[in-house]
Write a structure and sequence with these properties.
Blueprint lengths: L3 E6 L7 H15 L2 E5 L3 H6 L2 E3 L27 H13 L4 E6 L1 H10 L6 E6 L15 H22 L2 E6 L6 H9 L4 E3 L7 H19 L4 E6 L7 H12 L3 E5 L11 H16 L8 E6 L2 E6 H5 L7 H10 L6
Helix pairs in contact: 1-9, 5-6
C-alpha cells in the first residue's frame, strides 16, 4: 500500500546527506510512495515549509555536499507546544512516515515528537562526529576524516619549514573518533582525546617528555598535536601559551572548524548513505518505528532510538591499540 513520506535533515550538516535523500526518493518512487521534504530541519515542521520531491530533483545529487533541504537547530521544537504543532502539521499533510537524517539531538527530537504523533518515525545517522551508538559509522564521518588529514598534511609542510609546533583542533564535541583517526592517518606526533584525557598537568608533561625525546634523537624538529575541540581547559590558545613558555618554540594554532563539514562526500560516505537510505525505504509501512537504521559489519541494523544515545560510543580497541603504539606511547 502506498504511503506518504516526509524527510528532513536536522542539526549539523554532513557530507552524504544529499546522497541519502536521493536514495530515499528513488526507493520511494519505486515502491509507489509519495514523498515531501521539510526544509530547515524541525523548523520546517513548525512552519509547514515543505516541497514535493521526485527523481528529477535528485539527479546528480550523490556527489554534492551539504543538504538540498538545508538544516538548522530549533529550540522552539523542544517544547511540548512546539512538538504538538509539528504533529498537527504532519497530520494535516496526511504524513504516514517521517524520516529524520541527523545526529543524537535530532534523534532526541524525533522521540519528543513521538509523544504527540502516532506516525512512523525512522532515523538515519548523519553526523561527522561518529558519536551515535549502534552503527559502525555515521554519514559524513569518512569525509570529515579525509578533510582533517589533508589539512594536517598541509600544516606539516610549513611546520617542517620552520621547525614549529602546531596544534590542530578538529571537531568531535565529546567524541575523539575524528581526532584519533585523523592523527593516525596524518602521522601526527600527539593526539588529545576526551576518552583518554586524564588531566592538564599529566598531558602537558607527556607532550614535553615526548618532544624532548624526539629532539634528542633528531634535533629541533617540527611537532604536530591534534586535539578535539572544547577539550583543553581554557581553549587551544591557552595550550599554545603554555607550550611556548615551556619549550621556547613558536607554537601555532590551526582550528579546522566548519571546513570539516563541507566538500563532496568521499566514496565511503556515499555508499553508506545510499545503503542506509535505501534500507530505510524498505521499512516504510512496516511495524518498525522509532528506530535508527545503521550499519554493523557491512550489514544494515535497526536500533531503538533511545539506545543510540543511552551510552557513549566507545573508541574501537584496534585503533586505540595502534594509537598507543605509534603516537601516544605513554598510554601503552
Amino acid at each position: 500500500m502506498s504511503k506518504k513520506v516526509a524527510v528532513l535533515t536536522s542539526g549539523g550538516d554532513a557530507p552524504g546527506m544529499n546522497a541519502c535523500i536521493r536514495a530515499i526518493v528513488l526507493a520511494c518512487e519505486r515502491e509507489g510512495h509519495s514523498i515531501v521534504g521539510y526544509k530547515h530541519g524541525y523548523n520546517g515542521l513548525l512552519n509547514q515549509e515543505y516541497q514535493a520531491l521526485d527523481s528529477s530533483m535528485v539527479h546528480n545529487l550523490t556527489q554534492r555536499g551539504g543538504t538540498i533541504l538545508h538544516s538548522a537547530r530549533c529550540e522552539a521544537f523542544k517544547t511540548n507546544d512546539g512538538a504538538k504543532k509539528a504533529a498537527e502539521n504532519l497530520r494535516w499533510l496526511d504524513i504516514d512516515t517521517l524520516i529524520v537524517i541527523g545526529g543524537d539531538g535530532s534523534f532526541r527530537g524525533a522521540a519528543h515528537l513521538a509523544k504527540f504523533w502516532s506516525g512512523q518515525i525512522l532515523g538515519l545517522p548523519g553526523t561527522i562526529d561518529n558519536d551515535i551508538n549502534g552503527t559502525d559509522a555515521t554519514i559524513g564521518y569518512f569525509t570529515a576524516i579525509e578533510t582533517a588529514v589533508q589539512s594536517i598534511d598541509k600544516v606539516r609542510d610549513t611546520a617542517d619549514a620552520f621547525e614549529r609546533i602546531f596544534l590542530v583542533e578538529v571537531m568531535g564535541r565529546h567524541a575523539g573518533f575524528l581526532a584519533m583517526n585523523g592523527a593516525l592517518a596524518s602521522a601526527s606526533d600527539y593526539v588529545i582525546l576526551p576518552e583518554l584525557f586524564e588531566s592538564e598537568e599529566t598531558t602537558l608533561q607527556d607532550i614535553l617528555s615526548q618532544l624532548s625525546e624526539k629532539r634528542e634523537q633528531r634535533g629541533n624538529v617540527s611537532y604536530i598535536i591534534v586535539l578535539t575541540e572544547n577539550l583543553w581547559p581554557g581553549g587551544i590558545n591557552r595550550l599554545v601559551s603554555q607550550l611556548e613558555a615551556k619549550t621556547d618554540t613558536d607554537v601555532r594554532p590551526v582550528i579546522l572548524g566548519h571546513v570539516q563539514r563541507g566538500g563532496s562526500p568521499v566514496s565511503q560516505d556515499r555508499l553508506l548513505a545510499l545503503k542506509l537510505g535505501a534500507h530505510a525505504a524498505t521499512l516504510i509501512g512496516t511495524s518498525a518505528n522509532l528506530i535508527m537504521v545503521g550499519e554493523k559489519n557491512g550489514n544494515p541494523v535497526e536500533v531503538c532510538l533511545p539506545d543510540t544515545w543511552a551510552e557513549q560510543k566507545p573508541l574501537d580497541n584496534c585503533t586505540v591499540s595502534t594509537l598507543k603504539m605509534l603516537i601516544n606511547n605513554r598510554y601503552a
